[in-house]
Amino acid sequence: MRPRRARDDRVIPRVDAPATRPHILIILADDMGFSDISCFGSEIHTPHLDRLAAHGVRFSHFYNCARCCPTRASLLTGLYPHQTAVGHMINDYHLPGYRGFLNERCATIAELLRPAGYRTLMSGKWHVGEQRPHWPCDRGFEQFYGLISGASSYWRLNPGCVMARNNEPISPPDAFYMTDAITDHAVQFLHDYTAPDQPFFLYLAYTAPHWPLHAYEDDISPYLDVYRAGWDALRTARYRRLIEQGITREEWALPPLDGTPWAHTENKDELVRRMAVYAAQIARMDAGIGRVMAALEATGQADHTLVLFLSDNGGCAEIIERSARPDALTGTADSFRSYGRT
Question: Which residue in 48, 65, 106, 127 is the catalytic one?
Fold first, then answer.
């Protein structure tokens, strides 16, 4: 790897890292609400994240940049997104803060950790540079598998979207589910490219639960009855659990409902299903995180790994309807929908 230059033109030198340095695993969810996992009050079953929370620290005061790309740019570089040229999304407006890809004036975590002796690995969504030379392996990662683009079907790659392995575009196989594929390659990386005597940095960036709403029926069905209670009752129950868990306080009142009360809402069956599919996407991601943690245990690295879990922003309010068939059941491959504001 060529040395990267700091902003004052100093060359960042290669140094040998002592073997006692911790491994680092950053897990990023995509468009997931603050209270969408059970250790933050949710009704969604997330036992593996709950276990991490129980043995770690839960943060209750946290900021992000409110959109996918700027948050990822800041996370990867430690800078304000406009300093990295990703002030908005991936469009190039030919302005210094709005090029749509990480510029040469910033260094990624991978570009700094790799010369310090870390193996640098990534599985998941990139979304901070659509064209070479702005892909992960151009910016410090030794191994990459995932989605270069921002959002695609979970069941297949949509036209115009790009997936890659290292620097080569790829097409997913017929038997494919995005969340599982991201997990599979993260687990494989831990087995193939890590060793106890060399620290690693693994960036595990899921697309879940970003739209489209896609999930296995077996993951959806347990939540259908849960969401028939409607969002009025569910948001109140989450609020009470957040107070019980010490994440929020009684004096911080639950904000007014931003939308139609459930009793006056039409099309309830469809909305119940959309909420259940969203929950299923999070539950599947949690199961994948469990597999990654099991791989750390199996390779003897769990006790020496710093694990961080966060979301790039909160739940998405966009209204998306791009289904191949208007009558396609939400969650299936021919559907392509968001859950919207309500």
Answer: 127
